Amino acid sequence: MYEVSSFVAAHGINPEDCSQYKEESSKTHTKTCADIKLMQMYLLQKGEARAMEDIPLNVLDEYISAFLCAGRKKNGEEYSWASLRSFVASLERYLRQRNVYTGSIIKGRDFRKCRSYLEAKKLYYSRGKPRIIGSIDERAVEHLYDTEKLGMGSPVSLINALSLICVQWFRLKTAWELHALQWRDIQILSDEEGREFLACLSPSRRKNADSCERVYATPNRPERNPVAIYRFYASRRPRSMLKPNSPFFLIINVQPSCSDSSIPWFRLHGMGINSLRGVLAELRKQLSDT
Known about the structure:
By secondary structure, this protein is mainly alpha-helical.
């Protein structure tokens, strides 16, 4: 783990800058520097070498909101709303001290995505965390594929199948985790023997490429083959939504033609938290009723 002093010095954030927060208490001063360090490390992981103050505000909004959505504690748990709000307050203090942004990230127009995420997160915790899908009966899954509630027969069954893969194999069991997924986070890879598998490369589910969650292809069962399901999903997405940072789960088109392969089944927008929560709730119900 990097020491705060050595990290900030290496990235142009020296301790003297942090000491200029004269109005802060010692505890707040320490937390501000630690949060700045954490954000800069995240930027480096994303291939962003610029310091925060050198990044355009609209781009910085994207980075901060992505961090708030994907960030996890060392034990894998999500940060509470209060912790995220406190983290954003540290970034505000830093940007203000650097004379980059004198407004409020929470209330300002320049950080709409960040503000929207925090508001939704606060509402989420005020309602209580939803139940996650528990142990999964393989016979129930088989029945859902047989009745085409899972599979590649329609946009709804396709989203259901992908959601179940995320829940059962990638251990992404809440709407927030599904909402945070980007197209780059789930990929088709091959092992040393040439066997294909679907891998979850989401930052919240792995420490490195070798420890990623995976589910192998099942060529002998093509209707349930996770790799085939993923490829089919890619073919039904709009081309512009195949970019690495595109949302993984997309809104279903209204009454798409299932026979015309030229018409995308999905729209140019990611599914919202409530929609994904509904998908998981319906999956939970179908699995328990079977």
